[in-house]
Amino acid sequence: MIEITEQQEISNSKAPEEALTWEDLTKMKYTWRVATELTRINPPVALSFRRAKQDIEYGGFIIPKGWQVRHKTN
User: What are phi and psi of 45, to 5 degrees?
Assistant: First the structure.
C-alpha cells in the first residue's frame, strides 16, 4: 500500500522518538491528499467567510456586493 510505504520509509529514517519535520510531511504525498480531502468533506471550523457577489437583502438588511459575510458551514 502506498500510504504505508511512504510512512514506513520516513519512520525508518528517523531516530526513535524523533519528531516529524515539515520536510517529512511534504514527502507524504498520499497521506497529505487524504488529510486534505477529509478536511474538505468535514471542515474543522464551523464558520467561514464568503464575499457577497451581488447586493442582497437578508433579514431586512441590505448586504452590499463585495462585503464579507460569515457563513456557518455545519
Answer: -110, 130
Residue with cell 460569515: 70
Distance between CA atoms of residues 47 and 36, nearest Å: 18
Task: For the chain, report the end-to-end CA distance as a whole number of angstroms.
Answer: 34
pLDDT value of position 2: 59
pTM: 0.46
| Helix or strand run (H / E) with residue 49 | strand 47-51
Cα separation, 57 vs 59, in Å, equals 7
Joined together, the cell numbers standing for residue 68 give 464579507
Question: Which residue type, as a one-letter code, is found at position 54?
Answer: Q
What is the rounded distance in angstroms from the CA atom of residue 28 to the CA atom of residue 24? 7
Task: Express each pLDDT in 20-46 by its tens digit.
Answer: 898 888 888 888 898 889 888 887 777
